[in-house]
Amino acid sequence: AQTVTQSQPEMSVQEAETVTLSCTYDTSESNYYLFWYKQPPSRQMILVIRQEAYKQQNATENRFSVNFQKAAKSFSLKISDSQLGDTAMYFCALTGNQFYFGTGTSLTVIP
Amino acid sequence: KAGVTQTPRYLIKTRGQQVTLSCSPISGHRSVSWYQQTPGQGLQFLFEYFSETQRNKGNFPGRFSGRQFSNSRSEMNVSTLELGDSALYLCASSYTTGNTGELFFGEGSRLTVL
């Protein structure tokens, strides 16, 4: 069975600093996709970044980057130069025959 | 391009009642999936529809059902509501099935069961 674990329910970071959100997963699939989604307060969830498991290179989207460790089944999200608009719930997700989501990390950026 | 639209946004029901939620996907998207979001549980997969066919179903009781119409709009129904059904129900659409592409989410329907 596929599972996604986010062990940090809440985190905070000072504006302009860097923060890393952790995610571990388990799957028996050889090829899969990993995602980070962001859910701002009272707003819809949007995709932050996507990683294809067969690609060794870590995905990057502007200030967002991932550290994908396939052997360790780890997929952390690094947010650089944190901004107030980054305050949101962040969900790690894994694909199989469906999307599997973690329980989320609530990130607060402190001015 | 209009995003995913969910109606109603908020609703309050009492135990034993039933509820129907609606989702209009992005134009051209044929896959619609539904999720239940509760604090501490994250998003739990309910079901996915593609071209009017249920492709996959999560581990929810039979009180939860859904359907998709020929225009890709989808509805989900919960019968005999229980207090534990209080949650944010999210709909997401994508162009294809196969779970490799990006999901586009609606703002959700927040259901409160009293």
Question: Which properties best describe this structure?
Answer:
heterodimer, A: 111 residues, mainly beta, 12 strands, globular, B: 114 residues, four-stranded antiparallel sheet, 0% helix
- Strand share of the residues of chain A? over 45%
CA radius of gyration of chain A is 13 Å
Order of helices and strands of chain A: EEEEEEEEEEEE
Overall pLDDT confidence of chain B: 93
Question: What shape does the CA trace of chain B take?
Answer: globular
Count up the helices of chain B. 0
- Work out the helicity level of chain B: under 10%
Terminal CA distance of chain A reads: 41 Å
- Please count the helical segments of chain A: 0
* Oligomerization: heterodimer
Overall geometry of chain A comes to globular
Q: What's the main sheet of chain B like? A: 7 strands, mixed
* Gyration radius from CA atoms of chain B, angstroms: 13 Å
Written account of the structure:
- The complex is a heterodimer of chains A (111) and B (114).
- Chain A is mainly beta and 111 residues long.
- Chain A has strands spanning 3-5, 10-14, 19-21, 24-26, 33-39, 46-52, 60-61, 64-69, 74-79, 88-95, 99-101, 105-110.
- In chain A, strands 2, 5, 6, 10, 11 and 12 form a 6-stranded mixed beta sheet that branches.
- In chain B, 0% of the residues lie in helices and 53% in strands.
- Chain B is mostly beta strands and 114 residues long.
- In chain B, strand 4 (31-38) and strand 5 form a beta hairpin.
- Chain B has strands at residues 5-7, 10-13, 19-24, 31-38, 42-50, 53-57, 64-68, 74-78, 87-94, 104-105, 109-113.
- Chain B has no helices and 11 strands.
- In chain B, strands 2, 4, 5, 6, 9, 10 and 11 form a 7-stranded mixed beta sheet that branches.
- The A-B interface holds A 4, 6, 9, 33, 35, 37, 43-47, 50, 91, 95-104 and B 3-4, 33, 35, 40-45, 48, 56, 58, 90, 92, 99-100, 102-103, 105-108.
